[in-house]
User: Fold this.
Amino acid sequence: MTQTITARFFLDYGEFKFDVDLRLPGSGISVLFGPSGSGKTTLLRCIAGLQRAPQGLLKINGEVWQDSERGVFVPTHKRPLGYVFQEASLFPHLTVTENLQFGLKRINKPSSAADLHQIIELLGIGHLLKRMPDRLSGGERQRVAIARALALNPEVLLMDEPLAALDFQRKQEILPFLNRLHQELNIPVLYVTHSQQEVAQLADTLVIMADGRALASGPLAETLSRLDVPLAHDREAATVWPVTVIEHEADYHLTRVAFAGGTLSLPAIDAAVGTPLRVQVYARDASIALELPSATSILNVLPATVTGLTDGHGGQSVVRLKVGNQALLAHITRKSTVLLGLRVGMGVYVQIKGTSILN
Assistant:
């Protein structure tokens, strides 16, 4: 049976109504993205049982935690979950080890020493175990907070903007560890953020929220490239492709990567052949030609098909393309759209002027 999370909640606050109906994968990282006040934290609180929606249904991989029609509501302390907040909130009078061990008594199946060792290794905190919280950096405190949540052997991990209180340097310190969670955890993670960069680096599934509703949800690349949501029109609009390193061209300081249906040349990457990565392509860095350019300095020129068109802001068009099996967005002028005669189903060539390696 496919593992899934079903979350349906309705809350009426008068002028603000919270009304979501989501079906999310029961593994991987589902990112809840949207501006402040869109309902992201409310959704996490309903899942945690900290907020009880009068109308609600919550199933986590087959287990019913709430069903208002049947009068079922599992209280928070009986829900096998981990919750990580913006602030690490470690107990200041306890060492890191004591913080990790705190709360194990409340779970029915305690984490074994081997499980705890694996969590410590996963988050790279072995050298911090004897320290008090006031001797930790912000990033270290947050890694300990995540480890403490995982030590409870949860069936779901909820993370409410865990990087929001950190400066840029500390965010860069902790992101590799979050990527390791993404690769090695077998439990679902629901991750709240308003950072597009965190979306691109971490999400398997993306939920776009606004005004108490889910505007869109689905696999990351597919959802980022939907023309009916605001992200596609944003100046920072981008798509994310999973790629694999296939070759290094040392003479040119380039690395070749493969994606679903093609290859790209990128600036040299220090990664072994076979390494999986994510590449981000901004819509502003993609241009369109009707014929294969015969002479160009741009290395990545790929055949594509127009799959969608819409008007953007200030004389701009947003074009959705299919390149191999990957979706791509391009922001071009409306005049260019007219002069090229672009239409859905048309074969074109896309020139990718720049990419960003995400991990």
User: Anything to note?
Assistant: The chain has eight helices and 21 strands. The first strand starts at residue 4 and ends at 12. The CA atoms of residues 302 and 350 lie 5 Å apart.
